[in-house]
Amino acid sequence: MGLLARNSEAERWLAVLLRALHLSSVVALGAQVMGAPLGAHTAPAWVLGTGGVMLAMDLRAGRIALRELAGAAVLAKLALVAWMALDAARAPWIFWLLVLGSAITSHAPKHFRHWPTPPRQSQSQRPPLPERPQHPHSP
């Protein structure tokens, strides 16, 4: 078993450390929004970096899917953080939107977090694929 093999003790501790760094960077981002003298892009870069790595780890482990509400929410949150870095005038309301959205999507019941986006159709509900016309010179 490799050092960062899926479901290894090392991977678990890496995830714990990443979450701690991510939460610390979110606090720094909030402090920056409230006027703390931090570099304009330092806190957003840490939030995006740690969030992106955690997303990759969760995708690898199958704990999240981008076609479910939880995965789509993570992508939306990362996009909003990037927007904050580019638009300081709107950063305060985007930050509070992120805090509220994160609390809801992180702590909602499992059936809500893993709700498909858009809802998956069963095979019987899907419209049939159109027939592809044959090229007159194809065998």
The ordered string of helix (H) and strand (E) elements is HHHHH
Mean pLDDT: 84
Shape: globular
How many extended strands?
0
- Total of domains: 1
Distance between the termini: 51 Å
- Helical coverage, percent range: 55-70%
Largest sheet: none
Low-confidence stretches: none
Q: Structural class, judged by helices and strands?
A: mainly alpha
The radius of gyration computed from the alpha-carbon positions, rounded to a whole number of angstroms, is 20 Å
Strand content: under 5%
SS summary, helix count: 5
Describe what this molecule looks like in 3D:
The protein has 139 residues and is mostly helical. The protein has one domain. It has five helices and no strands. Helix 2 packs antiparallel against helix 3 and helix 3 packs antiparallel against helix 4. The model has no long low-confidence stretch (mean pLDDT 84).
Could you name the key traits of this structure?
139 residues, mainly alpha, 5 helices, 60% helix, globular
SSE order and pairing:
Layout: H1 9-33, H2 42-61, H3 69-86, H4 91-107, H5 110-113
